[in-house]
Amino acid sequence: MCAYTGAVSKAFTNEDTPVPDDADALPPRATSLPITPAGLARLQQELASLRHAGESEIGARRARVIAQALESIYVLEPSAPDGRAAFGARVVLEDAHGQEIAYEIVGPDEVDVAAGRISIASPVGKALLGTRAGDVVVLRRPKGDVEVTVVSVTV
Fold first, then answer.
1. How far is the C-alpha of 69 from the C-alpha of 61, rounded, in Å?
2. I need a surface site. Which of 14, 79, 113, 154 has the fewest CB within 10 A?
3. Rg of the chain (C-alpha set)
4. Residue 125 and residue 136: Cα distance in Å, rounded?
5. Rounded to two decimals, what is the model's pTM?
6. Which residues pair with 46 in a beta bridge?
7. Which residues does 142 contact at the CB level (< 8 Å), separation at least 6?
């Protein structure tokens, strides 16, 4: 999960410039964001672990980010109406070489690419919305476009 922490690298500041008292303040979120029930549980567990572990500077900052996220999210149940990919759905794709990869379409606060959780707002997430088994989709990626076939859509 990527989040603004309010910290500024010294490489981009003038040492003589005073740091404002609210330098670690987080910018307010513009809108509420969706999260799956499982994502909410993961965030709550992480926050509890951070609070239990003590107050390192990094841990305290992460705890503030999570606390702010918890104030501005809403739980949205996973769905796949009529077998179409929607928020919370698990979509299995197959490339031209027969390799399969699975993605779960989630909210921005629960993204974990290594675990296959991608944001509903990401280019791949957007491309998968509304697809169903058998559909062919072109995924636009920095490495180049790739054509995949949707194998299954489940919740």
1. 12
2. 14
3. 19
4. 15
5. 0.78
6. none
7. none
How far is residue 135's CA from residue 153's CA, in Å, rounded to a whole number? 11
CA dist 99 to 23, 114, 124, 125, Å?
Answer: 46, 16, 17, 19
From CA 70, how far away is CA 32, in angstroms rounded?
10
Q: Cα separation of 155 and 153, whole Å?
A: 7
Residue for token pair 């280019």: 123
Alpha carbons 150 and 12: distance in angstroms, whole number? 45
Find the length of the chain: 155
Q: Using one digit for the tens of pLDDT, what is the confidence trace for 19-67?
A: 444 445 667 766 789 999 999 999 999 999 998 887 788 899 999 999 9
Task: Identify the CATH number of the domain defined by range 81-154.
Answer: 3.10.50.30
What's the one-letter identity of residue 117?
R
Please count the CA atoms within 13 angstroms of the CA of 137 that sit on its side-chain side.
Answer: 25
Contact 101/149 with Cβ under 8 angstroms? no
Q: What is the pLDDT of residue 24?
A: 57
Helices (H) and strands (E) in the chain, counts: 3, 7
The residue whose two tokens read 């169903």 is 132
Q: Which of 91, 92, 94 is nearest to 79 (CA)?
A: 91
